[in-house]
Amino acid sequence: MENTFHLKTKNHADMVEITSTLENWISDNNIKNGILVVSSLHTTAGITVNENADPDVKSDFLMRLDEVYPWEHPRDRHGEGNTAAHLKTSTVGHSQTLLVSNGSLVLGTWQGVYFCEFDGPRNRKYVVKVIESK
């Protein structure tokens, strides 16, 4: 089973939690057990799992990525000027593989799934595919 989701990011860099969207889709499609893959369809936006209890984690995460990959670097040659966004996406990754058990994502107490925007705001897409098991 597969679905494409759309979202509009609001900031140049952001982490949009998509955990509830994934959980609702699992429930709506009566998926009990399996492997779920969520994948960004963009070279400047990724997917990660991280803490969802303290909002400072998101801002710290984005701040530290900016420190490693500053937006303007004198040696960047990419004509669109968004080399940092490409590097951040490759570092974070464009997808995550998650388990589904008893109709729910298998996540730790403080974990959430995030769509990571690195070159927004933009209209974005991500794909979710589940391989069901018994």
Could you give the topology of this structure?
Blueprint: E1 2-8, E2 14-17, H1 19-28, E3 34-40, E4 45-51, H2 55-68, H3 83-92, E5 95-101, E6 104-105, E7 111-117, E8 123-132
Antiparallel strand pairs: 1-8, 2-7, 3-5, 3-8, 4-7, 5-6
Describe this structure in words.
The protein has 134 residues and is of the alpha+beta class. The protein has a single domain, classed as YjbQ-like (Jelly Rolls). It is built from three helices and eight strands, in the order ββαββααββββ. The chain has helices at 19-28, 55-68, 83-92, and strands at 2-8, 14-17, 34-40, 45-51, 95-101, 104-105, 111-117, 123-132. The strands form two sheets. The chain has a five-stranded antiparallel beta sheet, with helices on one face. Strand 5 and strand 6 (104-105) form a beta hairpin. The protein starts with a strand and ends with a strand.
Structural key phrases:
134 residues; alpha+beta; Jelly Rolls; five-stranded antiparallel β-sheet; three-stranded antiparallel β-sheet; 3 helices; elongated
